[in-house]
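Please review the protein record below. Tell me whether the encoded fold seems credible here:
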Amino acid sequence: MAKEYDYLLKVLLVGDSDVGKQEILSGLDDGSTESPFCSGSGTAHKTTTILLDGKRVKLQIWDTSGQGRFCTIIRSYSRGAQGIILVYDITNKWSFDGLNRWLKEVEEHAPGVPKVLVGNRLHLAFKRQVAAKQAELYASRNKMACFEISPLCDFNIRESFCELARMALHRNGMERIWRSNKVLSLQELCCRSICRRTNVYTIDSLPLPPSVKSYLRSYALTSSQCLNTVLNNSASIAKNLKCKTATSYHLKHNMRNGCVIS
């Protein structure tokens, strides 16, 4: 029986209690009949499958209660994790200040694992206590991607998990496996279609915004340079082949006539 996914990743949700980790899990499509489930050890587990560049990536997401007495559980589960989601509540400054403790715990037991910083409850932005710029600077200092999400509005949840999956697969070298089968973006398809019917000199006459024209010119130049390189290489190979053929012909002709080449 064929597998229902191409890659399987273990993801750990960490953060203080009451930051909405269960809200995030509940907003994801359920990938198995037995999850989500709660065990007596204080962890909740859920699986979901996302589509990433045409490949099915199954995420096994583990959540802890966020209380201090479950730090031993985090130590246990973080060892096999391929991605970490650090969650805070944008309406709770204390939950953001506590990220250093979680980050230290994760780095100690899962060093180098890709991480994404998630600010939950964006729908309560009118009660915001953590500025978006502050979170972005913190994420940048710690080499993390950063998202603000809202389970209530289903905003940026899947995007944050997709970014984490991409980072995890890239870290493990799996991205090279399907790069040739990568699904082209809509922008790439549009650029390819337009450049196929015009050239770099007539792009300025198109009824498009200046920023789009600039991107099209760059795309057209890059594509034409690649094409010219291929054509030049082909011409060089053909020329060399022609020279070798001519030399071989003259050598055979001279030998046939009894000529000696010194």
Observations:
- The CA atoms of residues 186 and 192 lie 10 Å apart.
- Residues 33-42, 225-231 have pLDDT under 50 and may be disordered.
